[in-house]
Specification:
5-stranded parallel sheet; about 1000 residues; disordered N terminus; mainly alpha; single chain
Length: about 1000
């Protein structure tokens, strides 16, 4: 950051307070927001020389040298005076002054010159970095770099401008290298690769950029590419300068070859506070009436207080459900917050349920809370755990892991660094969690139980009936959850006495249950609260427990209960008051996992008539189907699928626009898929498969692809066992669609063929349309172009017979791809254009983007690169708005192909790198091979041939494993003749 002229504070003049100047680009001036005319290039050269004069007066001879050097014109002095006079007329009074036979510019605020503002920001960034505030330093450097607007002093002639231009450009690169260095220190290596690739193309001999690129690639798991960068650099330096790489670059190469552990993690991983806070505070609220457990509070507090100076402090609380593990852990965690100033993380691991939380999912949530951008979060559990530990290194963070299944689930979630601590609750004793401080939490003592009961019911009522109160807490088995339920009901009924409640609990059957071990004891405590519910509350409690899923929305609950929204909310909130239901968020509710099991047992035992259980779940399925069909219709106007779905007996939600509709679909994804899974053994398979079909956006987005496919498989298998060809056919269509999106074309082809066979002779024309279209797509991807065209022509006829214009448009765009592949580029454009026009006529934004994607490819092949880029950028905007990450990545790939066709390899490499990032974990290996092939072409175009070969070798391995025809193309790229 040294070597750039500093401009000292100058005398302020009120008249020039609103005047601003720019030299980090074209030489410009503004009065407020109004640009001023600065005249000819020589006139601007004079202004630049004065602005960069460090506040000093420039003599006439100095200005002549600055403008013309050793070859001034005969009337140079007169020209300087003329330029100065013209500038004085444009600028405010007193800005350009004459003194001592020369000129000076006087500005009111030194930062009114963009160069001074950039210098000040760079100085502040250095201070922030010295204080270990890397995020602040990065932000300040980005602000400084944003002040550049192209080439400094652009278009300004003269030797002085040439010298200053070179210095300012060098300084910009130094700032950029400093910021990129901090990017890598903070673990942002994935994002840095794309930018560094473009920079090394623009400045191929700048070794520091090459070094940063090697490190970014290595930390992104691309070791071979990192080493290829070194080989490319060594060859380039030898060819251009006849020198070897500098020692720092050689040392980095050796460390990469040796897999030096010191390179694997950032040296100072500090989480960026955007988009999530740097200091998470995720602890649930502590209960205001926490009672007793003094010895446990003290014991756990001591363990947490010892976290500083230890590798890790871990305490694991075990006990039966309802014993108060979570309440105690949350209370202790809140008391210890001051010892963990860098934040507190919390996760419910759902260990007592059927589907415990996956550690990689929890790690993803933690990393986001710690400020890690989604694009930097790796896919595998091991990589996420390593990044998590890196982000926590040097921090003091408390992690509360609630409701753990076992030690294997917990281990990847432990911080493992000095100063951090973890609190774990579980129904299982974590004897195999190495180094953990184990705490077995038993029921409350009689005094503690009575104290808790008194705090909830009130001192006056309990004091009058102390013996009855002791009977109540004894009947509750001294379990905190049972005591809280019983006391809450009594507190809500002012006409009851404590003795009334005690008599209700004197039933021997309940007492025997209470003496049982494990879950039966918990069940007895739930029975206490359930027995005191009003009939409407009890019905809601039973029926809502039937639904799977992590929680349930108010609207879905209203469907289950067949109640108006307001009435359903009143009932649900009253259940929250009894502690039998939790409010997960505004408008969302959930059961404790054990309470849900108990609610289902009550439904089986008490719900009359028994058919109401099935009716309640049918209403939920109808609600989801009707709403998902509405979302589909908004997303795909004119698409006839909604006309071929089963009619519903319960209405769904209505949305104002497609963004609201998308928000609902993605927020309800887990609940919706869980509901479908519940119906795999029922008589309503057709409604279930229709819901899955209508929610197809969930698999296109990539966010829920695995669970979506698993549910589709379950439905297909259930249909087979029931010999339901209609459902099996539709399930096969959905499976084929999902599998081709994930790049498993052989499986997709099989599923599409099954779907076509199953729909033969069935009155299910739309499923047959989709099956034909999918057969054409999979045949195309497998290189069987004639088969593909035949299937697509049949699909086109099928969609026309169904009067499905959106389906026709889809097939036309797919046929465009066939025509491109078989050497018919002009007809490919025409087909894609027809598809786009059809989508536009229907108002079909999302699928219209797919049409523009196909049209962009066809235009590229026809050499119309500018038009192709316009179409693809329009598509990219829609895909991003619609959260279609798969199509976002593929569109970035096609933009990279446009760049290559337009001979912009540096921009192509940027788009291809972005495509790799977007497609991480989705789209399948075949699409990854496509991106790597294009990235290799782009890298070769900017002279990074070694790295290009690494990309092609990886692509070749992918294609060979898939037995794909693209392998031949990549082999040709890898031959010396082609590479040359």
């Amino acid at each position: 950051m040294d070597g750039v002229p500093r401009i000292p504070e100058q005398q302020a003049l009120g008249e020039s307070a609103a005047l601003r100047f720019g030299v980090l680009g074209p030489v410009r001036a503004w009065l407020g927001d109004e640009p001023l005319a600065m005249g000819s290039p020589q006139q601007r050269a004079l202004l630049a020389a004065l602005l960069l004069r460090e506040g000093r007066t420039a003599t006439a001879s100095e200005l002549i040298d600055a403008l013309w050097g050793d070859d001034p014109p005969p009337r140079a002095l007169a020209a300087v005076r003329t330029y100065a006079s013209r500038l004085r007329k444009v600028l405010s009074t007193g800005v350009l002054v004459s003194e001592s036979g020369g000129y000076a510019v006087r500005v009111g605020n030194p930062r009114s010159l963009d160069l001074v503002a950039a210098q000040d920001l760079a100085t502040e960034a250095e201070k922030a970095k010295s204080s270990a505030d890397l995020y602040g330093a990065r932000r300040l450097l980005n602000e400084a770099l944003a002040l550049w607007d192209g080439e400094p002093l652009a278009g300004v002639p003269g030797p002085y401008a040439d010298t200053q231009r070179a210095r300012l450009e060098e300084w910009r690169l130094q700032l950029l290298e400093s910021r990129l260095d901090m990017d890598l220190e903070q673990g942002c290596h994935a994002e840095a690769v794309s930018e560094l690739t473009a920079l090394t193309a623009a400045y191929p001999l700048r070794e520091r950029l090459r070094e940063l690129l090697m490190l970014a690639l290595y930390r992104s798991g691309r070791q071979a590419e990192a080493l290829a960068v070194y080989a490319d650099t060594r060859r380039l330096l030898a060819d251009e300068l006849g020198v070897d790489p500098r020692p720092g670059l050689k040392d980095l190469q050796q460390r990469i070859l040796q897999a030096d552990p010191g390179l694997a993690e950032p040296s100072a991983p500090v989480a960026d506070p955007t988009p999530a806070p740097v200091r998470p505070a995720q602890l649930p609220a502590t209960v205001p009436d926490f009672t007793g457990r003094a010895s446990f509070v003290a014991e756990l507090g001591e363990v947490l207080a010892s976290a500083e100076g230890r590798v890790m402090a871990v305490s694991a609380l075990a006990g039966i459900g309802g014993v108060g593990k979570t309440t105690l852990a949350v209370h202790v965690a809140h008391q210890a917050r001051t010892s963990f100033p860098d934040g507190q993380l919390y996760a419910d691991l759902q260990g007592a349920g059927q589907r415990a939380a996956e550690p990689e999912t929890v790690l993803g949530s933690f990393l986001r809370a710690l400020g890690t951008p989604d694009s930097s979060i790796p896919d595998s559990l091991e990589e996420r755990a390593a990044l998590y530990r890196s982000v926590l290194d040097g921090r003091r963070v408390l992690v509360l892991l609630d409701n753990a299944k076992d030690a294997a689930q917990v281990r990847p979630l432990l911080p493992g660094t000095d100063g951090c601590a973890a609190l774990v609750t579980s129904r299982m004793r974590m004897v195999d969690l190495a180094g953990a401080h184990l705490v077995d939490l038993d029921v409350m003592s009689p005094d503690e139980a009575l104290s808790l009961f008194t705090k909830i019911v009130g001192e006056e009522r309990v004091a009058a009936e102390r013996e009855a109160a002791l009977d109540v807490v004894a009947a509750c088995g001294f379990l905190p959850l049972a005591i809280r339920i019983a006391a809450s009901r009594l507190a809500a009924r002012r006409t009851w006495t404590v003795s009334v409640l005690a008599r209700k609990l004197a039933d021997e059957r309940r007492r025997l249950d209470e003496l049982q071990a494990g879950d039966l004891a918990v069940k007895a405590t739930f029975e206490l609260g359930y027995g005191q519910l009003e009939p409407a509350q009890a019905r809601a409690f039973r029926l809502l427990g039937l639904a799977d899923g992590p929680d349930i929305s108010l609207a879905a609950a209203a469907a289950v209960l067949n109640l108006p929204l307001e009435d359903a909310e009143d009932v649900l909130e009253s259940l929250v008051d009894t502690s039998l239901l939790e409010s997960a968020a505004p408008g969302r509710y959930r059961y404790h996992d054990l309470v849900r099991l108990y609610a289902r047992a009550c439904a089986e035992r008490d719900e009359q008539p028994p058919s109401e259980r099935g009716a309640a779940m049918s209403r939920l399925l109808d609600f989801y189907l009707a709403t998902a069909a509405g979302v589909y219709a908004i997303e795909r106007p004119g698409d006839r699928l909604v006309d071929h779905l089963q009619p519903t007996g319960y209405p769904g939600l209505r949305f104002g626009d497609r963004h609201q509709a998308q928000d609902w679909l993605y927020s309800e994804a887990a609940c919706l898929l869980a509901c479908i899974r519940q119906f795999t053994g029922s008589e309503t398979l057709l409604h279930a498969i229709d819901l899955l079909w209508a929610a197809v956006d969930l698999t296109e987005s990539g966010a829920n692809s695995k669970e979506y496919e698993a549910v589709a498989l379950a439905l297909r298998d259930a249909a087979r066992s029931r010999q339901d060809r209609r459902v099996e056919g539709r399930a096969s269509v959905v499976l084929a669609y999902t599998q081709q999106l994930s790049g498993r074309f052989a499986e997709a082809d099989d599923a599409a063929r099954e779907a076509l066979q199953l729909t033969e002779g069935q009155s299910d024309p739309l499923a047959r349309c989709w099956a034909s279209n999918l057969l054409g797509i999979t045949a195309f991807f497998r290189g069987r172009h004639s088969d593909a065209e035949r299937h697509l022509e049949q699909a086109l006829a099928n969609f026309r017979s169904c009067e499905d214009l959106a389906g026709e448009a889809s097939v036309l765009c797919n046929l465009s791809r066939i025509h491109l592949a078989t050497g018919r580029p002009r007809s490919a454009v025409a087909l894609a254009q027809r598809g786009v026009e059809t989508y536009e006529a229907l108002g079909h934004a999302l699928k219209g983007a797919n049409g523009r994607y196909a049209l962009g490819m066809a235009l590229t092949e026809n050499g119309l690169c500018a038009k192709a880029a316009d179409q693809l950028h329009e598509a990219l905007k829609v895909f991003r708005e619609s959260r279609q990450r798969l199509w976002e990545g593929m569109t970035l790939l096609r933009l990279a192909e446009v760049d290559l066709a337009a001979r912009r390899p540096a921009q192509a490499s940027t788009n291809a790198e972005a495509a790799l990032t977007a497609l991480r974990g989705i789209g399948g290996e075949w699409r990854r091979g496509n991106v790597l092939t294009v990235l290799g072409r782009a890298l070769s175009g900017i002279g990074q041939r070694g790295r290009a070969h690494v990309c092609w070798q990886e692509a070749l391995a992918i294609y060979e494993a898939l037995e794909s025809s693209e392998a031949e193309i990549v082999r040709a790229l890898l031959t010396p003749a082609t590479a040359a």
